Amino acid sequence: MLPLIKRELVGAGFLEEEEFVEVVSLAQSLPGAVAINTASLVGWRLRGWRGELVAIAGTSLPSFLSIVVISFFLFSRALFLSWPPSFCLQCGIWAEKSLPN
């Protein structure tokens, strides 16, 4: 993810190579994902707190939305199909029915 961020920011002229190295080194020292920390710091440096919010949303929303879509389809199928209790116990659906009384 960092080479993509570097190509987009340094190649487009938003940051110099030296500035990008400083941002990445600071982002690596902070807790959390390096890509999100880097995007957050670059957004803050370019556009203030609004740029930081947009950068964080742009970095984290695609993976979050794909997980939501995948889980929606998996859980909607699990609720309407009669899958074996062992599968339902593994994914946490109808676990109470699968346990002995």
Helix-strand pattern, N to C? HHHHH
**How is the main sheet built?**
none
Q: How many discrete domains?
A: 1
- Shape descriptor: elongated
In total, the number of strands is 0
Rg from Cα: 21 Å
The helix content, as a percent range, equals over 70%
Number of helices in the DSSP assignment = 5
Return residue spans where pLDDT drops below 50 for at least 5 consecutive residues: none
The amount of beta strand, in percent, is under 5%
Structural class comes to: mainly alpha
Terminal residue distance: 50 Å
Mean pLDDT, all residues = 81
In words, what does this structure look like?
The protein is mostly helical and 101 residues long. The chain is built from five helices and no strands. Helix 2 crosses helix 3. The N and C termini lie far apart (50 Å).
In short:
With 101 residues, the chain is an all-alpha fold.
